[in-house]
Write a structure and sequence with these properties.
The complex is a heterodimer. Chain A has one domain. Helices cover 75% and strands 3% of the residues of chain A. Chain A has 14 helices and four strands. Chain A is globular and about 60 Å long. The model of chain A has no long low-confidence stretch (mean pLDDT 87). By secondary structure, chain B is mainly α. Chain B has a two-stranded antiparallel ribbon. Chain B has a two-stranded antiparallel sheet with strand order 3-6. In chain B, strand 1 and strand 2 form a beta hairpin. The termini of chain B are far apart. The chains are: A mainly alpha, B mainly alpha.
């Protein structure tokens, strides 16, 4: 049991971070889409569609941070100083964004609302871009000596990290658009479909570009993707991305057809599982990219030098928190799902939760 | 390099932590109490069916949403700052404090965030019972959060239950001993009570403000009455808890108590220095006003008891800023005494039936509105500055805990934090004041008149009133 603790925790932390990407990704995406959705009603619907859940979405980020400190303290103590600037910028952006969620509804004048809308949108852009940069900088490698970060203050800023920054911006924008396809109808949904098509193509482009560069960043990455037996494990990933792409671009018009066929129900809340298909396929891309990343990095948590075993806290620490996690995470997932279920269905103009 | 004019990276990192955590704690100090207050209000509404409780509930729910959001985003900063600025501390103490914070996220943060949405937006969708459950769970979440983070904090003050590995890392040996370390029960009781009082005085201040304008306002009367009961009953209890916490500190961190008292010499029958100025260079306190024997009486419960002095300890084991500890402590105690006094006067006025229309008293309550926030901040400054020069008391020095940082990087991020906090939280606090300036009224329903989107939200007041079986609002 003790030997497998680091592995279990690596999977759990990876899952928490992935859940964060899925959940905060789409609500950051809404802010990223704001410049193209300028009407007040549109923006109200967009924000209302996530108002009851965004807080929980962001909590996965806190779990990522606190969890890393608890079970991989060395990773926490080296990654965070290395990514000092992008992380601080991300936190500041999240402050703007989180507060403007509440404040834009309570603004008393149109100009105050405009400023809170800007804070929401810019906050989303900076947070998403910084997360992408942080990801790129981590993948490139972090120099560690004597259990401490040994690189410079600008090491994180490279063409590759800027590329991953833009990739995540576009990817989150895609998640936001797909969320809107599911949660809205009429002209807003039509606009979201157009956005999702464009962003879908762009996301695929970025996935391709990053995948082409990745193997050449570090020799071990190259081995993973181009030598047996790892290649056997890795090769389905790009193929599945393409399969999902085919499904994705077919699912978008299908949501349109369903909306045209369904009679307008002015009283009830329209909820269709299948309108969530584009969202699900987009998440599939994220999952596959994330898996690809895992295949490249394994078994390092701070590439290129620190493995999950080297970064691990004592078995006592990992075991103690695992007991709680084993009981609490299923409960958390249950009530989180319940909240999503409670607020399911299309959000209409003038029918927010606020 | 040309950066020599900057303070050291260590000092900047310390100031950054002090700034962000002080700002952050203002919000939990308010929301911990407010969550419980909302729970009580909703329970009263459910039990009595009186619409006015629901009105007051909704009035404070709006403030809760804003304060909670500000607490969350300023709290996310804290959970990352341990790594960015205090990476050596994180590496050395992460094995012990990390799981405690992990439990805080798992038991408290998710619970609060998960049910806050229902609490804010779900009354119409889930019905009264489930909505009340959500309110209770949010309140429970705030208390669990206090439990875990104060346990971690207390361990840094009174570490036990660990061993120290050859590389200097703290290794957990006995989790029960770590969680329930000696200062934890006192710190938890003192802090949670402080949060309740903080909320009570804000609620009381707002209630008094509106009573000054209209002493018939039913909502304001309820706010003020409930707040003054808290002041009358809980403020004296808090003084008692504070005394016990102080005795616990005397046992485990005598140099902190010596700094709080401004005592440099170990002595028998020490006087209580009410006003004075500790002089660190001369190693003495210039006394302006003191009460003979009182310090000995408070700390040892004997008139001629023995109390420690700062000179008992080598200079590098004394708090680094004695005047700060000394003055912060006086601010906290002074405000605490004023709060208890206000509560006492309220009992008299209530007995005379003049609680709601004694204008000088109402004005005093308005002035005392932020007393809890100031007292709680001063209390934290006392205990944290008093723990210096250590992060883990007696075992890990603050100077050894800091990340390998460059002063310009910390200075830049500090500047950014200060700017953003003042802009964002300034706007949020300004909004809270606007909210408080509006009188609580019947059929309180949150949305503004010019906000059509929100009129059909959770708060169609007449329908709720009907559902509650209460009287319909007057047309």
């Amino acid at each position: 049991m003790e030997e497998s603790l680091p592995l279990i925790w690596a999977i759990l932390i990876a899952t928490a971070v992935f859940l964060y990407i899925c959940m905060d990704g789409f609500d950051l995406g809404l802010g990223i889409l704001f410049p193209w959705f300028t009407h007040k009603d549109e923006r109200d619907v967009m924000v209302n569609s996530v108002a009851p859940v965004w807080d929980g979405n962001e909590t996965w980020l806190v779990l990522g941070g606190a969890g890393l400190l608890a079970v991989f303290p060395l990773a926490y103590a080296t990654i965070l100083p290395a990514l000092y600037m992008p992380l601080i910028l991300m936190l500041l952006a999240l402050i703007f964004r989180g507060v403007s969620f509440e404040m834009r509804f309570k603004a008393h004048t149109p100009s105050a609302r405009t400023w809170w809308d800007r804070a929401f949108s810019w906050g989303s852009y900076v947070a998403a871009f910084c997360q992408g940069i942080a990801l790129g900088a981590l993948v490139q490698g972090i120099r560690v000596e004597n259990r401490a970060y040994a690189g410079g203050w600008w090491d994180w800023l490279t063409p590759f990290s800027i590329l991953t920054g833009f990739a995540l911006l576009v990817g989150y924008g895609l998640l936001g658009a797909c969320w809107l396809i599911w949660k809205t109808e009429g002209p807003l949904a039509a606009k979201a479909r157009r956005a999702a098509r464009v962003l879908g193509v762009a996301t695929l482009g970025f996935i391709g570009l990053v995948s082409l560069i990745m193997p050449f960043l570090q020799p071990t990455f190259f081995e993973r993707w181009f030598t047996l037996p790892w290649m056997l494990l890795a090769s389905p990933v790009p193929i599945l991305v393409l399969v999902l792409a085919w499904r994705f671009f077919r699912a978008i018009p299908a949501t349109e057809a369903r909306e045209a066929a369904a009679p307008q129900d002015p009283t009830g809340r329209t909820f269709r599982w299948r309108d969530g298909a584009p969202f699900l396929y987009a998440l599939g891309w994220f999952f596959l990219s994330y898996t690809g990343l895992g295949i490249s990095l394994w078994p390092h948590i701070v590439p290129p030098s620190i493995t999950i075993w080297e970064a691990s806290a004592s078995p006592s620490s990992q075991g103690f928190l695992l007991v709680g996690a084993a009981v609490l995470i299923p409960i958390i997932l249950a009530y989180t799902s319940y909240t999503y279920w409670l607020f399911r269905g299309k959000v209409r103009i003038g029918q927010g939760y606020h | 390099m040309g950066w020599d004019f900057l303070p050291s990276a260590l000092d900047l990192a310390r100031f950054q932590f002090a700034f962000t955590v002080s700002f952050h704690f203002l919000f939990p100090a308010f929301t911990i109490g407010l969550a419980s207050y909302l729970m009580v209000l909703e329970a009263l509404w459910l039990a009595t069916g009186r619409g006015v409780y629901l009105d007051v509930f909704r009035y404070w729910l709006k403030a809760f949403a804003i304060a909670f959001a500000m607490g969350v985003v300023s709290g996310v900063v804290m959970s990352y700052q341990f790594g960015t600025n205090w990476s050596v501390f994180s590496d050395r103490a992460g094995n012990v404090v990390g799981p405690l914070m992990g439990y805080e996220v798992l038991t408290a943060f998710f619970l609060e965030a998960g049910f806050l949405g229902i609490m804010l937006f779900g009354l119409e969708r889930v019905g009264k019972v489930l909505h009340f459950t959500a309110t209770c769970l949010v309140a429970l979440g705030t208390l669990l959060s206090a439990f875990w983070i104060l346990s971690a904090n207390s361990w840094m003050h009174t570490p036990q239950g660990h061993s120290i590995a050859p590389d200097g890392r703290f290794m957990p040996e006995d989790w029960w001993a770590i969680i329930f370390n000696p200062s934890f029960p006192f710190r938890l009781a003192h802090t949670v009570t402080a949060a309740y009082l903080t909320t009570a005085f804000i609620v009381g201040g707002v209630g008094a403000f509106h009573l000054l304008r209209d002493r018939r306002n039913a909502g304001a009367r309820i706010m003020f009455s409930m707040a003054m009961w808290m002041a009358a009953i809980v403020a004296p209890i808090q003084i008692f808890i504070g005394d016990m916490h102080g005795l616990n500190t005397l046992e485990h961190q005598p140099q902190k108590v010596a700094a709080m008292e401004g005592h440099w010499e170990r002595q028998y029958g020490a006087p209580l220095i009410l006003l004075g100025q500790p002089d660190m260079a001369a190693e003495e306190t210039h006394v302006l006003l003191e009460v003979p024997k009182l310090s000995a009486l408070i700390l040892t419960h004997e008139l001629n008891g023995e109390t420690p002095g700062l000179k008992d300890f080598p200079p590098d084991a004394r708090p680094t800023n004695v005047p700060l500890v000394f003055w912060a402590f006086r601010v906290m105690v002074g405000l605490g005494t004023a709060m208890a006094a206000l509560g006492l006067v309220s009992l008299y006025l209530r007995w005379r039936g003049r609680l709601y229309d004694t204008r000088p008293f109402l004005r005093a309550a308005v002035v005392m509105g932020p007393a809890g926030l100031i007292a709680v901040t001063a209390g934290w400054i006392t205990t944290e500055a008093g723990r210096q020069p250590f992060t883990v008391y007696g075992l890990l020095r603050t100077a050894e805990s800091v990340s390998p940082l460059d002063a310009p990087a910390v200075a830049a991020s500090l500047l950014a934090f200060i700017l953003v906090y003042f802009i964002v939280f300034g706007a949020g606090i300004w909004f809270l004041f606007r909210l408080f300036s509006q009188a609580p009224h019947e059929a309180e329903h949150g949305p503004e008149e010019n906000e059509p989107i929100r009129t059909s939200g959770i708060t169609p007041a007449p329908a709720m009133r009907h559902a509650a079986g209460g009287p319909d609002p007057q047309p």
